[in-house]
């Protein structure tokens, strides 16, 4: 009989400032105990990342910080994530900290913070679309890598009008532009499974609520945090949802953690290495 393996929980959370929201992060890690976490908008340089507090909570971490904005990190419960890429390929001049990739708990994870793109039209929107093109190119290689892969993060795209409380007042926003949505659709067309929408095909489910105009109390939200699974991993999807209680804490991020659970196979332990003494014992004649 195969041993029981609890589902693997993987989450993405735009923390909107890791230093100011560290107590929220630690409370969430303690209560929900995700196995892998992708963080965005650290808004802190590398040397200000609170690694000691995160290690004390039981997590190893990789991070790529930046002063005042951007910044991404991958946490792994009880393990050290193994870095495979730092920065999205395709533009050696791009210095913005928006992509980090690692292996943890048998899964390859691409943690991303896609550019917002506002105001549009303009150079920020052009950068968003150019970054998206680079992501699409890299994602195609990841999809066919033969590994179980998750792309997780703040994509800064509202995929359809069903993913926003009311699109009318957002029509000019970069998150809803036809070009942004077309890029997301092209990404999915590679075969990626949008986990949250797959588990909640008909539900108005949101991951972000603006701080202004009472968006949170009115549940006037947007779905812009996504977890995409390649064909090696999609059949293992068990559940997906949003930890809304985190958004209700004092001084929260404007995002809530979004998560999936995966049924993963048991990982076989490597056989113990025999010492010279044990080999002599094993081969000694029976008395």
UniProtKB/TrEMBL annotation:
Positions bearing the site annotation: Transition state stabilizer? 156
Q: Does the keyword ATP-binding apply?
A: no
What InterPro entries does the annotation carry? AP_endonuc_1, AP_endonuclease_F1_BS, Endo/exonu/phosph_ase_sf, Endo/exonuclease/phosphatase, ExoIII-like
Its Gene Ontology biological processes? DNA repair
Classify the source by domain of life.
Answer: Bacteria
Q: Where is the composition biased (Basic residues)?
A: 267-287
Free-text comment on the cofactor: Probably binds two magnesium or manganese ions per subunit.
Which coenzyme or cofactor does it need? Answer: Mg(2+); Mn(2+)
Q: Which SUPFAM superfamilies match?
A: DNase I-like
Keyword Manganese in annotation? yes
Segments forming domain Endonuclease/exonuclease/phosphatase: 11-255
Q: Give the Gene Ontology MF terms in alphabetical order.
A: DNA binding; double-stranded DNA 3'-5' DNA exonuclease activity; endonuclease activity; metal ion binding
Identify the catalytic residues: 113, 154, 255
Q: Binding of Mg(2+): at which residues? A: 14, 41, 154, 156, 254-255
Q: Which UniProt keywords apply?
A: Hydrolase, Magnesium, Manganese, Metal-binding
For region Disordered, the annotated ranges are: 257-287
> Gene3D superfamilies per the record?
Endonuclease/exonuclease/phosphatase
Pfam families in the cross-refs: Exo_endo_phos
Which residue numbers mark the site Interaction with DNA substrate? 255
Q: Where is this site: Important for catalytic activity?
A: 225
Please report which protein family the annotation says this sequence is part of.
Answer: Belongs to the DNA repair enzymes AP/ExoA family.
What is the name listed in the Swiss-Prot or TrEMBL entry for this protein? Exodeoxyribonuclease III Xth
């Amino acid at each position: 009989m195969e041993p029981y393996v609890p589902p693997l929980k993987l989450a993405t959370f735009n923390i909107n400032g890791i230093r100011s929201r560290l107590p929220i992060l630690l409370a969430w890690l303690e209560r929900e105990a995700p196995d892998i976490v992708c963080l965005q908008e650290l808004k802190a340089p590398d040397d200000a990342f609170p690694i000691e507090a995160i290690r004390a909570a039981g997590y190893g971490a990789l991070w790529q910080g930046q002063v005042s904005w951007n910044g991404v990190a991958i946490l792994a419960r009880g393990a050290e994530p193994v870095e495979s890429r730092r920065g999205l390929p395709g533009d050696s001049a791009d210095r913005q900290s928006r992509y980090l990739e690692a292996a943890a708990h048998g899964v390859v994870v691409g943690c991303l913070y896609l550019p917002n793109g506002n105001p549009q039209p303009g150079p920020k929107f052009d950068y968003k679309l150019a970054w998206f093109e680079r992501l699409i190119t890299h994602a195609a290689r990841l999809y066919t890598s033969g590994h179980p892969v998750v792309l997780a993060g703040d994509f800064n795209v509202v995929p359809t009008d069903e993913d926003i409380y009311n699109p009318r007042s957002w029509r000019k926003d970069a998150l809803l532009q036809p070009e942004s949505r077309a890029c997301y659709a092209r990404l999915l067309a590679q075969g990626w499974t949008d986990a949250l929408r797959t588990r909640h095909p008909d539900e108005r489910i949101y991951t972000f609520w603006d701080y202004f105009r009472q968006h949170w109390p009115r549940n006037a939200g947007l779905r812009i945090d996504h977890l995409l699974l390649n064909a090696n991993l999609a059949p293992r999807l068990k559940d997906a949802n949003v930890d809304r209680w985190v958004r209700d804490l004092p001084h929260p991020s404007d995002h809530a953690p979004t998560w999936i659970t995966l049924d993963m196979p048991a990982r076989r332990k490597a056989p113990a290495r025999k010492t010279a003494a044990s080999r002599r014992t094993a081969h000694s004649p029976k008395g």
